[in-house]
């Protein structure tokens, strides 16, 4: 059974249909990216999966159970890290545990341990504005993970970072995704990023999105030296660009 099943979702805003009978799935431990032009309905889809928006029709299943209109079952992180500026890194990371009813002392101990496990002990007592953009995003990703490890929705989380930092954090995310056994659905405008991170890329396009091309990225092909310069990488890129231009 897939981890996430999205079935026959339709959504309109003020009589304008954005999504029309759209269905797709994400398997456990996969990273699946959604790419598509601005305004096509990517964030709308995420908001429906997160239970924050009510579709006109359709169902969303997580591990076989409906999560339609039921927020709190998946983790959701946006481009901006939204760390609370007046709280330390440790207090920020502890926040999801407090929201789940954990006692403050216990939450801080757990947050501290997680930060240590991930090698962030030095910044435990720092405030977000004392950190680099890349470090803030890593802390925010850890906090997102603590909300719910079930399914992580990431809406362009790395788009504001410079190329070097972005590349580092992508590799870091691949590592923690594997180590923590996560399942991730990812929105990005960056085709290279989608290929680098994903097992599968869905290309959304047109008005009233009712289907999309699905491009499988073979993980074996990523094992070559300099994958980003390889013929396989360029071939995936061509497929995605052709799909967007079709
Ligand atoms: N609450 C709303 N009320 C009315 N229209 C909305 C609302 N939210 C989104 N829309 C419209 O729905 C369409 C899809 O928006 P959405 O934000 O899902 O697109 P997107 O693909 O995520 O775009 P981007 O890549 O720019 O973030 C857009 O035309 C947008 O203006």
TrEMBL record:
* Pfam families per the UniProt record, alphabetical: ABC_tran (PF00005)
Every ABC transporter domain range: 4-231
**InterPro entries recorded:** AAA+_ATPase, ABC_transporter-like_ATP-bd, ABC_transporter-like_CS, ABC_transporter_ATP-bind, P-loop_NTPase
Record's signal peptide: none
* Keyword terms: ATP-binding, Nucleotide-binding, Transport
Recorded protein name is: Peptide ABC transporter ATPase
Keyword Cytoplasm in the entry? The reply is: no
PROSITE patterns membership? ABC_TRANSPORTER_1, ABC_TRANSPORTER_2
Q: Which GO terms describe its molecular function?
A: ATP binding; ATP hydrolysis activity
**Carries keyword Flavoprotein?**
no
- Lineage, top-rank taxon, reads Bacteria
């Amino acid at each position: 059974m897939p981890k996430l099943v999205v079935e026959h979702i339709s959504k309109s805003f003020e009589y304008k249909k954005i999504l029309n009978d759209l269905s797709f799935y994400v398997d456990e431990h996969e990273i699946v990216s959604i790419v598509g032009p601005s305004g096509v309905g990517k964030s709308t889809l995420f908001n429906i999966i997160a239970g924050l928006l009510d579709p006109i029709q359709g169902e969303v299943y997580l591990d076989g159970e409906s999560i339609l209109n039921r927020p709190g079952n998946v983790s959701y992180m946006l481009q901006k890290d939204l760390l609370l500026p007046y709280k330390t890194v440790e207090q920020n990371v502890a926040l999801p545990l407090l929201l789940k009813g954990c006692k403050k002392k216990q939450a801080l101990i757990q947050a501290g341990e997680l930060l240590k496990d991930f090698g962030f002990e030095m910044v435990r007592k720092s405030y977000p504005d004392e950190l680099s953009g890349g470090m803030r995003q890593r802390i925010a990703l850890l906090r997102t993970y603590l909300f719910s490890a079930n399914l992580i929705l990431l809406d362009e989380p790395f788009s504001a970072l410079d190329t070097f930092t972005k590349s580092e954090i992508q590799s870091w995310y691949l590592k923690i995704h594997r180590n923590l056994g996560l399942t991730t659905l990812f929105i990005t405008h960056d085709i290279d990023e989608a290929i680098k991170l994903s097992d599968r890329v869905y290309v959304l396009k047109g008005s009233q999105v009712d289907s999309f091309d699905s491009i499988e990225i073979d993980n074996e092909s990523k094992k070559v030296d300099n994958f980003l310069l390889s013929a396989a990488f360029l071939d995936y890129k061509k497929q995605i660009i052709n799909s967007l231009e079709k």
